[in-house]
Design goal:
This protein is of the alpha/beta class. The protein folds into 4 domains: 75 residues, Chorismate mutase (Chorismate Mutase Domain, subunit A, Up-down Bundle); 84 residues, Rossmann fold; 115 residues, 3-Layer(aba) Sandwich (Rossmann fold); 157 residues, Rossmann fold (3-Layer(aba) Sandwich), CATH 3.40.50. Helices cover 48% and strands 15% of the residues. It is built from 20 helices and 17 strands. Helix 10 links the parallel strand 11 and strand 12. The longest helix is centred in the first third of the chain and has 36 residues. It is flat, with a radius of gyration of 26 Å.
Amino acid sequence: MSRDEYRKKIDRVDGKIQELLEERFTLSKKIGTQKFQKGLPVKDGLRETAILGRISGRFGEEIREIYRLILQKSREIQKFAYFLTGKNLAHSFSPLVYEIFGLSNYGLFETDDFREVLGKDFRAINVTNPHKRSAYLACTQLSEEARKTGTVNLMVRAGEGFFGDNTDYHGFLALLDHYGIVPQGKKFLVIGNGASARTVFHSLKERGAAAVQIIARNTKSADEAKLGEYRKFSDFEFVVNATPYGNYPENALEPLFPLQDFRNLEGAIDLNYNPALTPLLREAKSCGAKTADGLYMLVAQAARNLARFGFSPEISISEVYREMRLHRANIVLIGMPHSGKSTLGKALSEVLGKEFVDIDQRLEARGRDLGSLYPDVEAFRKEEAEETIRHAKGWNQVIACGGGIVLNPEAIAHLQGNGVLVFLDASLDELLARLDGTRPLIQSEEDLVRTYRERINLYRRHADITVKTGTEIKEITEKIYEYFGN
């Protein structure tokens, strides 16, 4: 065997080693999270001794030396000097935001008791509901924004005490700038009366808003209005949601109140970021108003936090925001049967690094596909809609939908939550040429033509991006990237 052939073999082995190391470090980090949450030490000497003791063979000592470095690096990624604390954090995007910025060992610590947090060994932490007020009271030094709002979402060790800041304040101002929203002289109706609402209230006042009215289900002061009194403020130009309503996994579709009566409505802001299209923003969009979700605020406040950490990222807020928008998005493929959604979906999932979900295949695996349920088409449509909605509530997927899903408004509404709908447009002639009699509802040319005419305008209406069948995968991905670049 020649030297080049040996090197090719080594390259293949290196590829396998790299893949296995990625898997090992990922598992180590998950174990580190469990150790952190249970207050266990990072180093487990007995475990490391056992691992090194299992190594043998001709190159045993060399491999042990390599493993000592692996174990050292594993310990490093299990340390959480920075983390987010609060309740219900399992689906937080924060760790990924910090990872893209370049801070990899950022953890999550769920607790009902904030005193647990203060016993942890950390350099700095972020705080979310319901602990922002407790964090404020625990700090010995405070920023001007924290004092103004009575809220802390960032605690940094400072000598024997803690410095507290409200970086959500800066994040919200950055969101206003990003979307070109100028509060000066405008009236804002803010839904909610918690820590986030206080941050929004003072931020808008700083920017010269003519009026900022708090409205909530349960009022705390005479200055606040009851949710049912929203019509009193129908001359306001902006509505801001500072509550968790509509957030994942609830993914509600109906807004807390309609916006049609807001005769001067210019825009709506929702501090929630998952899904992207919240009930408030869906309602505002239907009224032709400007919409802004909370993802840019999340990224901007993280950048502010990093500065407080003493960390200087090499990537900009706009670049991280673009990456996070792409991560959050489901690429949803719609189109006629025989248009090639499954084939395209598999290819896109590999290129974009997203999970591939084929709704027809998922139903078939459960014995709930049209072939199994036929002729009970109504039962199939119900199963199809339920399966589609279940996946639509997630993120970072490529979803190949059944051809008839556009007939279900509820399913389409959920798909639009985090979805970019891509219509794979096959001409009628192309579809007729692919007709093979395998679809129970499309057995003949007449069936196909009738179905095509019934659905074509729905595909076109719901599509964010339209591509012709046969378009190169590179061109399709460029269209998707261009969409997120806007």
